[in-house]
Amino acid sequence: MYDFNYQRASSVDDAASKHAAADDARYLAGGMTMVPVLKQRLDQPSDVVDLGGLGDLTGISETGGAIVIGAMTTHHDVNTSDLVKSKIPALADLAGTIGDPMVRNRGTIGGSLANNDPAASYPAAVLGLGATIQTNKRSIEADDFFTGMFDTALEEGELITAVSFPVPEQAGYRHFPNPASRFPIVGAFVAQTGGGVRVGITGAAPCAYRQTSFEDALAGGLDPESLKGIEVSSDGMNSDIHASAEYRAHLVNVMARRAIGG
Amino acid sequence: MPSVSMTVNGKQVSGEVEGRTLLVQFLREHLGLTGTHVGCDTSQCGACTVHVDGRAMKSCSLLALHLEGADILSIEGLADGDTLHPMQEAFREHHALQCGFCTPGMVMSAIGIVNDHPDLDEKTIRHQLEGNICRCTGYHNIVEAIGAAAEDMKG
User: Fold this and answer.
1) Cβ contacts (< 8 Å) between B18 and chain A: which residues?
2) In this predicted model, what pLDDT tens digit does every residue of B115-148 receive, in sequence order?
3) What ipTM was estimated for this complex?
4) CATH code 2.60.40.1930 for B86-154
5) Do residues A200 and A125 lie in contact, with contact meaning Cβ atoms separated by under 8 Å?
6) For the whole model, what pTM was predicted?
7) Cβ of B131 under 8 Å from any chain A Cβ?
8) Superfamily of B3-76 according to CATH
9) Does A36 sit within 8 Å of B131, measured CB to CB?
10) Does domain A5-50 have CATH number 3.30.430.20?
11) From A67, A163, A191, B76, which residue has the greatest number of CB atoms within 10 Å?
């Protein structure tokens, strides 16, 4: 790992100003992706601004029909939260599938979303539930947030502070885990929300997306039979040693059906 | 160089480290606590697992400076004098190791698993151990030991 100037933020504003003052800074949340990336010398920031001291970015609450999760809340805390388990059990279940226990004890929802790994789990839920990403500057709708592989709508120095998940009428998540890493090869989050049916897909393509053909097919109710026979194009899908593009396209349908009990 | 202070196995420690110094380097190279192992160095094998403020984490993926003021428990802090921790005793009793390299991380993870799951069954143990790799393929006895220790730790 190349060395860097370590700075510990004392508040969200302090984090933003430290980031702005540095040549080429990165925020550090749980570090479960970032530290391995630095160790492999895939990145060489001048400064690392540690958000670990920002306790006000941690916690889960219910506000106006939505579950609001602070950006520094760990996967373990989402997985075991009584509030999340009672209001959006599919989201609690999803958090329990991320990494392994040690990763879940440290990794955070804000860090995962800001990184936007093509195989990260949370983006499927954010899209499937129509969540809102709150930052230190604005609110960003899920549909506008994920812009490409490892790319988001976040501007330089912009910091996620919380994620607001509207409570759905019904929701489910299933993924097909990579046998070694347990990252989703494909994951599908299907939800009946106040705004209609939403289907968020992760792992299949360079960036998480909504499978609108499934949303249309499920408009009359979350019946897995409605998805049978709907083909998903493999054009542009990820292809690697773990799964071909065609296989991933096939899994999109299978995982979406399993997410709703099929 | 910046300095960092934390509690390790009940003792207050401090040292000067670089920004890039990992917790596992701080434990092994600064404090001489070499029981915590570096197996893969890519955050996959779990041999470096320690407890940070009571939760199992991979010390090869944490910056030492990140842990200012934290309470760290490593494998060296488990035994009470000559009396092994029930998990260590169960690993010894059930021969839950072959070469022993993964064992410190296995033991630290196992204690975390028992703490998190009051009613452990074999399936849960196997699933929760997914962050720890044993390349001697000795999982069977490890699972046996954790199940036995879970009973001992209840008492």
Assistant:
1) 3
2) 999 889 999 999 999 999 999 978 999 999 999 9
3) 0.96
4) no
5) yes
6) 0.96
7) yes
8) Beta-grasp domain (3.10.20.30)
9) no
10) no
11) A191
